[in-house]
Amino acid sequence: MKVDLHIHTKYSPDGDIDPAFLLRVALGRGYRQLAITDHIDPPNDPYTPFDPVKFRNCRNDITLLQTSYPTLSVLFGAEVGEFHRNEAFVRSQFAVCPPELVIASIHMVNGANVSVPMPKYPTSELARAYYRENLEMLDIRSIDVLGHLGIYKRYIVGGFNDYDCKPLIDDILKKIIAKDIALEINTSGLKRPLRNLIPEPEVITRYKELGGKMFVLGSDSHTMTQFDQSHEDAAVILRKLGVRQIMYRNRNNWATIPL
Ligand SMILES: [Zn+2]
Ligand SMILES: [Zn+2]
Questions:
Q1: What's the CA-to-centroid distance between 7 and ligand 2, angstroms?
Q2: With 90 as the cut, is the pLDDT of residue 42 above it?
Q3: Nearest 5°: CA angle at 242, between 240 and 246?
Q4: Sign of CA dihedral 53, 8, 183, 50
Q5: What is the 190 CA–ligand 2 centroid distance (Å)?
Q6: What spacing in Å lies between the alpha carbon of 117 and ligand 2's midpoint?
Q7: CA–CA separation, 77 vs 57, rounded Å?
Q8: Cα(213) to centroid of ligand 2, in Å?
Q9: Mean of the pLDDT values across residues 230-250?
Q10: Residues 177, 212 contacting (CB under 8 angstroms)
Q11: Which positions ≥6 away from 38 have C-beta within 8 Å?
Q12: Ligand lying closest to the C-alpha of residue 8
């Protein structure tokens, strides 16, 4: 049984997945649950400007499709960028169209988008600023999942040594554990220059040492070729790290399935 709780569709400004096709493929490949998590960023965001009409259309589309796929659960979710910086706007959208799953992610650090290939090699200052943003964002309520911790390394061959950020990362991990926020294991780095999970195995191991148990798998697919591309590879790595189960949503609660 597979689960993917991070997928972008054609209703997202940067995705082109047709939900009907996605569900058909997912069912054939043994998925039990998917979450559509299109971006919620301000309408003037230069990368993923929010369109409330598309957001509502997405929800309506999923609700309709769900009736045709009783054995595959599909959640209407959202990936919120810099939630703490856009809180009033995001909550106004949630009031109209509430998502069933909220991933909170950091994409922008000091005005730079760190989730795309960056023009310059990162610095320790950038890494610190990135983790600080994550830590600050986690004070916001109604976050279900912390998205792709360490995303700024996705396009860097061999990653980036942010060892001096270890205390900050520990603070982030302790905070999500205390608040029952799940840690996303984002598989999109496996086929990108990083060639690793996001967060990387060291952080996953540290999370476990600190008592963390809430692992969520997300492909961060924006196209159908990315969907189901790395689920098995990720599962192999996670099992080696001693992760035996992952989370899915059962109504409004978390539940686990074996990995
Ligand atoms: Zn993201
Ligand atoms: Zn995403």
A1: 7
A2: no
A3: 105
A4: negative
A5: 15
A6: 15
A7: 13
A8: 22
A9: 97
A10: yes
A11: 8, 9, 11, 12, 15, 54, 55, 58, 78, 79
A12: 2
And the tokens for 205?
A: 């191991």
Q: Shortest CA distance to 104 belongs to which of 43, 179, 45, 184?
A: 184
Q: What is the pLDDT of residues 92-144, one digit of tens each?
A: 999 999 999 999 999 999 999 999 999 999 999 999 999 999 999 999 999 99
Tens digits of per-residue pLDDT, 151-170? 999 999 999 999 999 999 99
Ligand 2 centroid–CA 220 distance in Å is 5
pLDDT of residue 125: 97
Distance 120 CA to ligand 2 centre (A): 22
Half-sphere exposure of 129 (CA within 13 A, CB side): 14
Retrieve residue 142's tokens: 């109604």
Taking a C-beta distance cutoff of 8 angstroms, is the pair 35, 227 a contact?
Answer: no
